[in-house]
Amino acid sequence: MKRILSLALLLLFLIPLFSACTGKTPDVIESEAQMVTLDNLDWTIPVEIDGASPTTYSLSQAKEHELVKIYCSFRYASTTPTSNPQVTTAIFEGVRFSDFLADIGYPEASSVTIHHTNTAYYPPFEFDYDMIHHEGSIITWIQNKKEIIKDSDSHVGFASEIGGVEDMCHSIAKIVVHP
Fold first, then answer.
1. Are both 107 and 52 inside the same structural domain?
2. Closest Cα partner for 142 from 65, 64, 73, 39?
3. Domain containing residue 16
4. 8 and 85 fall within a common domain
5. What CATH code is carried by the domain that includes residue 171?
6. 38, part of any domain
């Protein structure tokens, strides 16, 4: 029992010493090591196509296209009712949605359904022909020029200049294409 107590006390003294040397505690260092940034970001979106075989779309495919910048207003998620809407505008960068549709072989798709990673909170997003073929509709992974999309599980989203504040999906789980 004395050995266990001695070991515990030794560890108790080593943590502040380690923190004093680095300025960070071990839990902060571990959390920062796991932090996703634009430099280490990688994503793949499952794509289901009505009447055809499923496929995927990846960051490497998206990077083959010219990046597009748009300004998009969107509503922050809130788990509590609020009388003041939590709306903001951000700069998003990504690949045109029409390029994505061409890459998967359905350049004239009529509509899509985009599922969020948090389906308990967000219903699937339904986007019609005009929205998905607009030049300002993108699959995005860059927010405000140098950041990944905030509060996103998948780090890839859908944004559109012509969408309303409820039309921005910030964490795509899968896309269903309707030819």
1. yes
2. 39
3. 2-33
4. no
5. 3.90.420.10
6. no
Long-range contacts of 49-53 (CB under 8 A, 24+ apart): 49/104, 49/106, 49/176, 49/177, 49/179, 50/176, 50/177, 50/178, 50/179, 51/179, 52/179
In angstroms, the CA 107 to CA 132 distance is 10
pTM: 0.77
pLDDT of residue 1: 74
* Chain Cα centroid distance, residue 134: 21
Span 145-151, mean pLDDT?
88
Phi-psi region of 9 (alpha: psi -120 to 50; beta: other; left: phi over 0): alpha
For residue 43, CA distances in Å to 32, 34, 114 come to: 19, 15, 16
The owner of tokens 């923190």 is: 19
Q: Are residues 105 and 145 in the same domain?
A: yes
Domains in the chain, number: 2
At 53-87, the pLDDT tens digits run: 999 999 999 999 999 999 998 876 555 555 565 78
> In terms of DSSP bridges, do strands 147-148 and 172-178 run parallel, antiparallel, or are they unpaired?
unpaired
155: left (phi over 0), alpha (psi -120 to 50) or beta: left
Asked whether residue 94 falls in the same domain as residue 29, the answer is: no
Q: Cα(172)–Cα(107) distance, rounded to whole angstroms?
A: 20
